Amino acid sequence: MLYSVRGTLVHREPQLAVVECGGVGYQCSVTMNTARRLPDVGGEVMLYTILNVREDAVDLFGFADRAELNCFKMLTAVNGVGPKAGLSILSELTPDRVALAAATGDHKAFTRAQGVGPKLAQRIVLELKDKVGLPNDGGVDLSAPSASGIVSASRAAEEAVSALTMLGFSASEASAAVSKLDGALPVEELIRQALKTLGRR
Fold first, then answer.
1. Is 45 helix (H, G, I), strand (E, B) or coil?
2. Under CATH, which architecture does the 4-63 domain have?
3. How many Å apart are CA 21 and CA 111, to the nearest integer?
4. What is the pLDDT of residues 13-52, one digit of tens each?
């Protein structure tokens, strides 16, 4: 199984990147978000990959970071979401926005992706929300505090940790990353900053 490819970018299209490694060019289908982060042709690039083998084709998908890779895996595990739909969703939404939409039940966010209708969007939210585990091993204090402002901060932290867990990080990793951030930040910003921290590990 190919985990990643690192080499020279020899060709690029809006949703395609060809990376040459050891004289072999690997054609990777990529999201628009990953495409925007690619270097110019001739530059060095590293992509996390998933190899999809079917009866009539073998496709390689490349992602700029681990969060997008994990998000793609989670999305394509949903009944009715194939690789094409997964790429479409991650071309419209970043992993943190996908996680936030799933954690908060915002199915309309997924309908922005080409080929994703309301019914499929609702199924995505339903199935992913079920996979979001709440942390129970410490890191973020989710006990009910007295001040309403603290309650909001606690809920924001809880939603952020849940979203990060959905993206494939353990509850302890997610809790530790979120606990170091300003609890007054909005959920999406908590997720974004935590992903930066987790991505460096």
1. strand
2. Beta Barrel (2.40)
3. 37
4. 989 999 999 999 999 999 999 999 999 999 999 999 999 8
- For the domain covering 66-131, report its CATH number: 1.10.150.20
For residues 96-122, b (16+ Cβ closer than 10 Å) or e, as one string? Answer: bbbbbbbbbeebebbbebeebeeebbe
Q: What is the mean pLDDT of the chain?
A: 83
Listed in order, the ranges of the chain carrying CATH 2.40.50.140 are 4-63
Here the tokens at position 10 are 């020899």
Residues 6 or more apart in contact with residue 36 via CB below 8 angstroms: none
Instruction: State whether residue 77 is helix, strand or coil.
Output: coil
CATH architecture group of domain 148-199: Orthogonal Bundle (1.10)
- pLDDT higher than threshold 90 for residue 154: no
pLDDT tens, 103-140?
778 899 999 999 899 999 999 998 887 665 443 333 33
